[in-house]
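Workshop exercise sheet. Pairs work together: one partner reads the sequence aloud, the other fills in the structure field after running the prediction. Swap roles for the next sheet.
Pair: D.N. / O.F.
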Amino acid sequence: MKDGRAIIPFILLVILSVGGGAYYYFSVTKEEYPIVKEIENLDGKIIEAKLIGKSGGFLFIESPPGGKRFEIPTYKLSLKDRILCRRLRKKIPESLEIPEEKEPKDPYITLRKAKISEI
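Structure field:
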């Protein structure tokens, strides 16, 4: 009976060590942008891309041939690339940031503002 009890703390120590190592790997050690990498989608299509940001469920990439920027939903990536995405820090590239609107686009509000300025 004593031998069976002695192994339980050892097993718990191993589980805590592995769990702590996984937490450190996924939470503390984050990759920095830009990252040049081949990414693969669920269909197996592979593209060479420069990863320039991540926000929510989207990965922002820049394709090398033309420098065009795209956003790809992470659920469409292969498992290994989704794991990489989890390790990336949140960053929205400058060109994809939403500019603040100076005037509302709602026609009702625009019309009302025009009538107010007439008064």
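Discussion prompt: Strands lie at 35-40, 46-55, 58-62, 69-73. What would you look at next?
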